Amino acid sequence: MKKAGIIVALAHRAAQSVIHPGIKTKEINEIVEKTIIENGGYPSFKGLYGFPAAACISVNSVIVHGIPDNTVLKDGDIVSVDIGACYKGYHGDSAWTYAVGNVDEQTKRLMYIGEKSLYEGLKMAKVGNHLTDISHAIGEYVFQHGYSLPRDYAGHGIGTSVHEDPTVPNFGPAGHGIILKEGMTFAIEPMVLAGRPQTRLLKDGWGVGTRDGKNGVHFEHTIVITKDGYEILTKV
């Protein structure tokens, strides 16, 4: 899983390096897939439940599961890139939201709160805590800053499958769910919305957008619980 996570991180680095006004989302996907394969992995998402691409690429008000296509990124957009890689039967999964050119201050704040909420949740990822201690920490941070979270999308266990039990909600009361133990692996992934929490499924049957048309961000890391806390597997 560490190797799978490193491959995911390298693919993110490659994607980030080409994100600029004028690039098409399908071109980012091609770079992600090429990077994964060159590093000995296989794109976890390609063919998963029938998904047609190596990465989910979601622009502005589309928060998750966007299909890469001929959409051209513009200055001021934000783009969420969700990447999974499989290495020798084990998976890594990470999503990140990137600015395209110059974004306004309101968008910068949304991105900051989204990223910070991930790390607020991870503070509770330690042996002896309950699973929903992570959920509660994410949700409280987001709500305190005036943002919302979609109700139907959450983090998950991960290992020999991309999506494994248990589900890891991004909000809710603390003190519930399994007790965290050393060696457990999870993909923690808050999706933070500028407006209301309601979402809509796009016509392609994959992409999920905000119902009010306001922007959303997505930040995710794969982690392992260690004796001293947690280790992020999807970074280099």
Give the gist of this structure:
The chain is of the alpha+beta class. The protein has helices at residues 2-18, 25-38, 105-122, 131-144; strands at 42-43, 55-59, 62-64, 78-87, 90-99, 155-157, 164-168, 185-188, 191-193, 199-201, 208-210, 216-218, 221-226, 229-232.
Structure characterization notes:
By secondary structure, the chain is α+β, with helices and mostly antiparallel strands. Helices cover 27% and strands 27% of the residues. It has helices at 2-18, 25-38, 105-122, 131-144; strands spanning 42-43, 55-59, 62-64, 78-87, 90-99, 155-157, 164-168, 185-188, 191-193, 199-201, 208-210, 216-218, 221-226, 229-232. The strands form four sheets. Strands 7-6-8-13-14 form a five-stranded antiparallel sheet. 49% of the residues are buried.
Strand content: 25-35%
Largest sheet: 5 strands, antiparallel
Q: How many strand elements?
A: 14
How do the helices and strands follow one another from N- to C-terminus? HHEEEEEHHEEEEEEEEE
- Uncertain segments of ≥5 residues (pLDDT<50)? none
Gyration radius (Cα, Å) is 17 Å
Regarding quaternary structure, what we see is: single chain
Classify the helix fraction into a percent range.
25-40%
The largest sheet has its strands arranged as: 7-6-8-13-14
* Intertermini distance: 13 Å
Descriptive tags:
single chain, five-stranded antiparallel β-sheet, 4 helices, alpha+beta, 236 residues, globular, four-stranded antiparallel β-sheet
Architecture blueprint of SSEs:
Layout: H1 2-18, H2 25-38, E1 42-43, E2 55-59, E3 62-64, E4 78-87, E5 90-99, H3 105-122, H4 131-144, E6 155-157, E7 164-168, E8 185-188, E9 191-193, E10 199-201, E11 208-210, E12 216-218, E13 221-226, E14 229-232
Antiparallel strand pairs: 1-4, 2-4, 3-11, 4-5, 6-7, 6-8, 8-13, 9-12, 10-11, 13-14
